[in-house]
Amino acid sequence: MSSPARWRARGSSSSGPLRSRSPCSSGQGARGPAYGSIVAGGDNACVLHYTANNAPLRDGDLLLIDAGCSLNDYYNGDITRTFPINGCFSGEQRALYELVLAAQEAAVAAVAPGQTAEGVHDTAVRVLVEGLLELGLLSGDADGIIERGAYRHLYMHRTGHWLGLDVHDVGAYRLGEHHVALEPGMVLTVEPGLYVSDRLPVPEGQPAIAERWKGIGIRIEDDVAVSEHGHEILTAAALKAPVALER
């Protein structure tokens, strides 16, 4: 896990998330896994917390790996990457992967002091919905789809969570009617995804899913620290550009 040396723990309280993790380098090692790894091929990647990790990998499928280490200073990493098993994306896989990547990059770019976790999530949802409309996997008006949640059969989770001494770290996301503003030193994950399967019913008014899209599960996750003037991606060394994942 990549980590700039300048990031240091600044303490926390019950009213806010733990602050950025203490410095480490790959040579310092780790205590072990931060959580049960998710290693899911094909349609299993559409199960958010699939941990059986025992299904054969099939040529032509994608492999989703969600894993992280717990460092010797007890801070945790949480990273997800999705790869083509045979080294080459199909047309449908690449289209969805590039859409998830665009949503993730837009959401990461939104991380800055004064922003909120809700704002980061909303940024990712907007990109995903507009892209799914272009691909024909959704139909209608983007604003209406977002308001009704008519995309949730394809993207059903939040875009991130606080990260620190626990993988899903302590701290409120909103206090009363107000969302908690991001501050320098906070760390959160940014992890949009798309999960195309028959597991959830298609909402009324949305198109049936063609077979060629089914069984594609994609998530891209980075650990992002809020800085004084924006953010820093602590997991930037883990490649995610499509060309870097193909051979």
How would you sum up this structure, described in words?
The structure is a single chain. The protein is an alpha+beta fold and 247 residues long. It has one domain: Creatine Amidinohydrolase. Helices cover 20% and strands 19% of the residues. It contains four helices and twelve strands. The protein has helices at 91-110, 117-135, 142-148, 242-245, and strands at 30-33, 38-41, 62-67, 69-71, 79-84, 174-175, 178-179, 187-190, 193-196, 216-219, 222-226, 231-233. Strands 2-3-5 form a three-stranded antiparallel β-sheet, with no helix packed on it. Helix 1 packs antiparallel against helix 2. The two termini are 23 Å apart.
Structural class: alpha+beta
Q: Share of helix among residues? A: 10-25%
Rounded average pLDDT = 90
Strand order of the largest sheet: 2-3-5
What would the principal axes of the Cα set say about the shape? globular
Report the strand count.
Answer: 12
Cα-atom radius of gyration = 18 Å
Q: Multimeric state of these chains?
A: single chain
Strand content: 15-25%
CATH classification class = Alpha Beta
Task: Please report the distance between the alpha carbons of the first and last residues.
Answer: 23 Å
CATH homologous superfamily identity: Creatinase/methionine aminopeptidase superfamily
From the coordinates shown, what is the CATH architecture?
Answer: Alpha-Beta Complex
Strand count, sense and barrel status of the largest sheet are:
3 strands, antiparallel
Number of helices: 4
User: How is the CATH topology named?
Assistant: Creatine Amidinohydrolase
Order of helices and strands: EEEEEHHHEEEEEEEH
Poorly predicted regions are 1-26
Tell me the number of structural domains. 1
